[in-house]
Design a protein that fits this description.
The chain is mainly alpha-helical and about 450 residues long. It has a single domain, classed as Orthogonal Bundle (Proton glutamate symport protein), CATH 1.10.3860. Helix content is about 75%, strand content about 0%. Bound molecules: aspartic acid.
Amino acid sequence: MSLTVKVLWAMLLGIILGLIINLTGMNSPESFVNTYVVEGLFYLIGKMFITALKMLVVPLVFFSLISGVLGIGDIRKLGSIGLKSFALYILTTAIAIATAIGLAALIIPLFSTPTATAASFTAKEAPALSDVLINIIPDNVIHAFASGNMLQIIFFSILLGISLLMVGKKAQSLAEGIEVMNEAMMHMVNIIMSVAPYAVFALLAKAVAELGLDLLTQLAVYVIVVIAALLLHLFGTLMLLLKLFSRLSPKVFLNKIRDAQIFAFSTASSNATIPVTLRSVTKRMGVDNSVASFTIPFGATINMDGTAIMQGVATVFVAHVYAVELGLSGYLTVILMSVLASIGTAGVPGVGLIMLSMVFVQVGLPLEGIGLILGVDRLLDMIRTSVNVTGDAVVTCIVAKSEEEIDLETFADLEAGSAEELEIHSEDEEALAQTVHNVEKNV
Ligand code: ASP
């Protein structure tokens, strides 16, 4: 069985076990099962796995970005990759939220919705655009790395890569070393992924045991519209954009992105999923590291299509419940705010709600409305994070295709990169030779 199939089985079994625990009431706080299994064993396994994934993120992004820059060897090309991916990320997020608002505005008014029950939620101020821009530059590199600030790490790594190119021949051995470290990090991803089925089983059993289905049915209209808009965006908009801009097959793409989607679903964090997404697009789809090393961590930070969709539907839903008329300008503000908020916040669990509070403050919706949807947010977070990382991968493929940095044979080969055994073998000679060549060229 391939790893993906094992993980899918683990996911299914985890959901079934979680439902059994939930429905039989074994999840009550004092029960043995809850104390030792759900909050004990499952918590431990799940937490250790997510922590291990997070451990990989900073060094992986650092080494792969520098070797990416060294591999490109041309600053203008770097700029064009940056501009294209930024524009596409903004475009997809804006389409996502517009779809969500449209769909929600059509469906939600048809149903009578629950009246507001108060659960308090503290608002966050939206960061000013100037702060977002200033914060891209780290005032202390060690701090940026220690706190895992992705935009700052990206900024510094690219600058360091460019500087190494400028050093030229003297930097050659270091460049080789970085390339080797990049390979080693990819192997580390494989090692950690080899225990993924157990971790995914534990994560899902715990989540479902705690969540159950009750809340979902109470807020059925909201949940269904969010999920419908997410699916529409995933299979409609994103696949259309992929086909239109890159002519790559959506079917093959969907097959190869599954790993990343499952991990995004299990961890509810685009950031923690970076190692898996990076592996899927490079090893399975054949995107060159020079593009993916930049677009994937960049996307995990600034691109959140799924989150934008939740915000669009939530806005319409809460406006409806509280009978607030937002009007066209209100909705345009929602679109603008969601896009801005997604740039300034990182992809970690639950951040979507914080962004939502920024939007609500801006358009004058009551914050108690967030309390209304709080209960179901955990599950929706898992689903929308899968859409978030799919968006990152779609944009990566489009940019890679336009830069001719994708190996179409690897993309078309369904087996490519799916060999899960932990290969202990030598580094990629060709990539290394290219890096050395680029460094030498700059002498
Ligand atoms: N959990 C999402 C992510 O990491 C963000 C959110 O919607 O809360 O992409």
